[in-house]
Amino acid sequence: MQIEVKIRGLMVDPQSGTPVVILKDIHSDMLLPIWVGPYEANAIALEIEKVAPQRPMTHDLMRNLMSEMGLQVERVVVTELRDSTFFAVIEMRNPEGEALLLDARPSDAIALALRADCPIFVDDEVFRASNRKSEEVEETGDSTDEEWPDVIGEVGDLPM
User: Fold this and answer.
1) Count of alpha carbons within 13 angstroms of residue 124, beta-carbon side
2) How much is the pTM?
3) Distance, CA of 44 to CA of 111 (rounded, Å)
4) Segment 6-59, tens digit of pLDDT
5) Is residue 46 in a domain?
6) Would you say residue 154 lies in a domain?
7) CATH number of the domain that 32 lies in?
8) Among 158, 157, 159, CA closest to 27
C-alpha cells in the first residue's frame, strides 16, 4: 500500500550537517525523514517558497523537457529503503496514455513533484523499515543525546 505524504519541513541534521526533508502522512502523524544533498534541498526550498531563479534549475529543466515531450508527471513514490538508502520512481504518462516509470533519487523526485504539482507517496514498507531502523539505533545507543531542532517552517504542513 502507498501512503500519500506532504512535505512537513526542511531541517539540518545537527550531527552530520546534512539537509533532511521531513515527509508527513496526510492522514496521520507518521513522519519520514529523508537525508538529501544541499543542492536538492535548495531546489526543494526554492520551490516551496515559490522563488523563481533567473535561469531554470535542473529540476525546472527536467519538468520543461518532460512537458515538451508530452509527458505528464502523475506522481512520485518513495519505493524502498535499502542499506540506509531511499529509492523512488517518477510515474508518468506519455501522449498515447502509456505509463512510464523513471528511477530517481527521492530528493530529485520530490523537487520534480513540487514543480509538476503532483502528489508524493511513500510505500508503507518504507515507513516500517524506517521505524525499525530508528528502533535499532535506540536499542544499540548509536545516537547521541543531542536533541534535534524544531522542524524549519510553520507548525502545519508547508504549502505545495
Assistant:
1) 5
2) 0.83
3) 5
4) 999 999 999 999 999 999 999 999 999 999 999 999 999 999 999 988 999 999
5) yes
6) no
7) 3.10.690.10
8) 157
